[in-house]
Specification:
The chain is α/β, with parallel strands linked by helices and 139 residues long. It has five helices and five strands. The chain has a five-stranded parallel beta sheet with strand order 2-1-3-4-5, with helices on both faces. InterPro entries: Bact_response_regulator, CheY-like_superfamily, Sig_transdc_resp-reg_receiver.
Length: 139
């Protein structure tokens, strides 16, 4: 199973990436929406884990609405769901507390929304549910 993780916080990328890699997932990480779009196209993940607040290069991703504030993660989701018309499971992991952003995520078809801080075991459980993984974890 392939998982694309997108977050502008390096320590979050490393923590989630290491955890999922240790569980046998094939991981690719990006720290901005521009690279995420390109990685999504090339890597073809079975699951996307993304933050809402991501940096972006507007020249490369002209479909992003600059007036929406720091929500390039939503624009990435909009790209996947509305432009590409794909149903890859998406889990948002974010510190965003704006209810409008939360609601918009679900309107755009996010499968799960986890607010930070989040434990590694909770991420693991959510990923297993979203990927249909039946691995038994005995701790």
């Amino acid at each position: 199973m392939k998982v694309l993780i997108v977050d502008n916080e390096r320590h979050i990328l490393m923590s989630i990436g290491r955890c999922l890699s240790d569980l046998g997932y094939d991981i690719e990480c990006c720290d901005n929406a521009t690279d995420a779009k390109q990685s999504y196209e090339a890597f073809r993940p079975d699951l996307l884990i993304a933050d809402i607040s991501l940096p972006v290069a507007y020249a490369v991703m002209p479909f992003i609405n600059k007036g929406r504030g720091n929500t390039a993660g939503l624009e990435l989701l909009r790209y996947i769901r509305l432009i590409k018309k794909e149903s890859t499971p998406v889990m948002v992991v974010s510190c965003h507390s704006d209810e409008g952003v939360f609601n918009k995520s679900f309107e755009l078809g996010v499968n799960d929304y986890a607010k930070m801080p989040l434990s590694i075991s909770e991420i693991e459980a959510r990923v297993k549910r979203l990927t249909g993984s039946m691995r038994l974890c005995l701790n």
